[in-house]
Amino acid sequence: DIQMTQSPSTLSASVGDRVTITCRASQSISSWLAWYQQKPGKAPKLLIYKASSLESGVPSRFSGSGSGTEFTLTISSLQPDDFATYYCQQYNSYSFTFGPGTKVDIK
Amino acid sequence: QVQLRQWGAGLLKPSETLSLTCAVYGGSFSGYYWSWIRQPPGKGLEWIGDVHHSGSTNYNPSLKSRVTISVDTSNNQFSLKLSSVTAADTAVYYCARPRLTATKTCFDYWGQGTLLTVSS
Fold first, then answer.
1. Which residues pair with B13 in a beta bridge?
2. Chain A neighbors of B95, CB-CB under 8 A
3. Residues forming a β-bridge with B39
4. pLDDT at residue B104 is higher than 90
C-alpha cells in the first residue's frame, strides 16, 4: 500500500492567517490526491481533487498544489468555519489510503 | 441531490458479524464503484473496499479475509459484511460515492456514518 503522511499533526492559527498543510506519499501518485475537511461527528467533505482542482461549492480561499510525492493544501485567510481536521487521500492505486490528519485549532 | 443513507447494528460482541446497508437516493447508481470507509474513534480514515454496480469488488488487503461487499441494483443499495469482529473493529463506518465513475477516484458524497462498538 502507498503510505501517506501529513505535517503538522496539529496547527494552531488565528482567523485571517494563511495556513499550509503538507501531505507526502511513499511513492509517486502523480496528481491523484484529494483533500477533505472533517468536523466532529460529521462525514468528511471533499475540498480538492486531482491535487489542485477545487470541488464545486468550496470557497476559493482553499487551494491545492503538488504532484508526485509532495502536496500542499493552503487556506489563504482562515475563517471561523475552517477550524477542523484535514485529511489527504491518494487514489493512484488500490487500496486507497488516507493521511493521518491535521487538526487546525484556534490559537 | 444525491443522498446516501446507511443503517445497521451498532453494538456487537466479539466474533459476531457486522452487517451494514447503504441506500442511494438521487443521481445514477450505475457505473460507480461504491465504497465503505471506516474511522476508529479519534483516529484517521481507512478504506475498506468497493463494489461496482455490476458486482465486481475490490478490498483492502488488510481486511479482505473478513469482508464481503455486495450490491442490490434493484433497490440502489450496497452492503458491507465484516465477520469475526473484535474491539479493533470499533469505528464509525461510512458509505461513500466516488466523484467519478472511474475505478480510482475520491469521494464526494458520504453517508451519515454508523458507529460500531464491539464489546463483550
1. none
2. none
3. B92
4. no
Q: Within a 10 A sphere around the Cβ of A10, how many other Cβ atoms?
A: 10
Cα–Cα distance for residue pair B82/B38, rounded to 1 Å: 12
**Is B5 part of the contact surface with chain A (CB cutoff 8 Å)?**
no
Which of A58-96 are b and which e, b meaning 16 or more Cβ less than 10 Å from the residue's Cβ? beeebbbebeebebbbebeebeeebebbbbbbbbbebbb
DSSP label at residue B75: G
| B45 → closest Cβ in A44, A55, A94 | A44
Could you give the CA distance from residue A73 to residue A20 in angstroms, rounded to a whole number? 6
All cell numbers assigned to A99:
493521511
pLDDT surpassing 90 at residue B95: yes
Contact of B76 with B5, CB cutoff 8 Å: no
Residue range A31-77, pLDDT digits in tens: 999 999 999 999 999 999 999 999 999 999 999 999 999 999 999 99
Inform me whether the C-beta atom of residue A34 falls under 8 Å from chain B C-beta atoms. Answer: yes
Residue B3 pLDDT: 97
- Using the beta-carbon criterion (under 8 Å), do A87 and B44 form an inter-chain contact? yes
In this prediction, residue B64 carries a pLDDT of 96
3-state helix, strand and coil shares in percent for chain B, rounded to the nearest 5: 5, 50, 45
